[in-house]
Amino acid sequence: MRLSRLALLATLLTSTDASHVVSGTTARLPMSLTTVIQDLEAEGATHVTTATFLTSRSVRKSEGSVLLRSLFGVSGSGDHDDEVDYGTTTAFGKKLADDDDETAASTTKEGGGEEGESDEEIGSGVAIACPPCLTSRRGATASEVTSTVVACGGTVVYVADRVDLGRSEGLFDYLGPALERLLAFRKMALEIEEQSGGAYEHRPSTLIVVFNGVSDPREMKEMQTLWEAAATTMLASIIQPRGSSKANTLDDVFDRIEYLSCDEKDVDAHLCPAGGKVASPASPSSREPSEVATSVSDVVNAGLVENLGPMVEMAARVPVKAACPRLTCPVDLAAARLLGPLANKALGECLDTVRAETGPDGTTLVPEFGALCNAAIKRALDAVDEVAAGSRFKKSPIAKRIRADLQENLYSEMGDIYELQVAACKEAAFAGFRGRLNKLRISPNLPSQMKEAAESSLKEFASSVKKLRSVSHATSYGSWTSNADQINSLRHRFNEHNSERLKAARASGQFKPVPRKGVTVGMHWLLPKPFGNDYRQEPNRVHTAEDLVYVPADGLTDVSGSEIRTGDWRRGVVPVPNSGEMMYLK
After folding, report:
1. Which residues does 219 contact at the CB level (< 8 Å), separation at least 6?
2. By percentage, how much of the chain surpasses pLDDT 70?
3. 157: pLDDT confidence band, cut at 50, 70 and 90?
4. Exposure of 408 by Cβ count < 10 A (0-12 exposed, 13-18 middle, 19+ buried)?
5. In what order do the strands lie in the sheet with 206-212?
6. pTM of the full predicted structure?
7. Which of 96, 254, 264, 382 satisfies CB 3.0 to 4.6 Å to 279 for a cystine?
């Protein structure tokens, strides 16, 4: 019974001291590396080595899952081995068994440790990032892979399928952009250290190439030759930073390259760039957990990770676009890497050219501002088209978007300067208008003369403002103010000024308008029945049986001569009391 207990205790101790998976995470890379590193530190790892596990295009998900577990010694018997699943797990941490614990402890004790004190525990671990290199929607983007490789210091475990090696396709869909970004990041870090006056510390990196489905040494040699030839072609096609030596072979990128078969176990032991034990704190790849976390934050702050939101954008040294597209094609990533800075440079040169004529504040009036804008914008777009016109970026949507964004930014910036130019032109036109008004003499015709002066100044302004306008001026959020709106705005200002000047002249008594002349109105009309009509008769009845005044016997006179002599005729015409008409009596 005692022997059984001792055997069980020995088994537990052996499993505890052996290499084992500490934790796994499904969070987004490269930020998820921080969680794994914290778990390793909690398990006693004082030094951590990071690496990225990548595969070529023809490696299926099932094959990648088997290779990930077999290459890194994940047997499935550990407490956290089930957390390692290729395609779901993005990173996992593994605590390494240190065979030199006793030596390290004795060294610490000889270095001055007091007797009776517990020696400081020294442990190492590896943090493996495994972004899924799949062609489906669940696959990682090129941006996630490149940022993860940079955060891991460039150490990569790459599985190359023999199918991809045979046809030289699908090998570098992820590794090519990752190396492009790694070289650019190293150049940027070197420039930052030189500007700050510090010394740049190169972080050694290792490339381990595992040939999937190949175990024969002779066939391994053939696959290695194919791999090196394809890698040389890839390095010649990627965009490398200027001002530094060009990487022609993988040896110019990595400090150590090792080729292994798919039957290899515990690949993490080969990650040391110096060829020693990665579990040793003296290994060039071993870093303190805080240093690894700093490397991850540097990648995030450098703007290498897309879609991080406004909080990271405000803290980043490089602007991070919140709605950045998912770059899954190496050509698109190369287009963004090359055309992005070129577009920014073209925009700056265009603004410098225009501001050299308009002044830094843009208020110096340039009569031919429209022609100046057209020439400067055309030169900026031609500079981008000259590089993007090649066959590499001809069908790239990112290249088209960069050019479209550049064109919109150019017209947007020119639109702001255009408004300043129009304002300066308005002030010049208003000054000329006031000069015309000052030449006028106060007379009764002053309002019409002031109106003529305003119209003359408006015609000159309309002719000048047309020359300030560019050929194309539309943007996604609007366009430049139209000439008609500018003219109407200035006409309204002229009218207000004329009104105020006339009011001031009238108030001072200098201006007296022309007095108005009287109006004579003449009216002529014909009364067919001057004495009215009998309401009992129809108006159309001219001849009646009654002896009315309107119908005398001869048709010429109203009354007879005898009635005129006697005066009795006036008794036949009497007013109607309740009407404006006349009623006639017999």
Report:
1. none
2. 72
3. very high
4. middle
5. 20-25, 91-95, 124-129, 47-55, 156-161, 206-212, 256-261
6. 0.54
7. 96
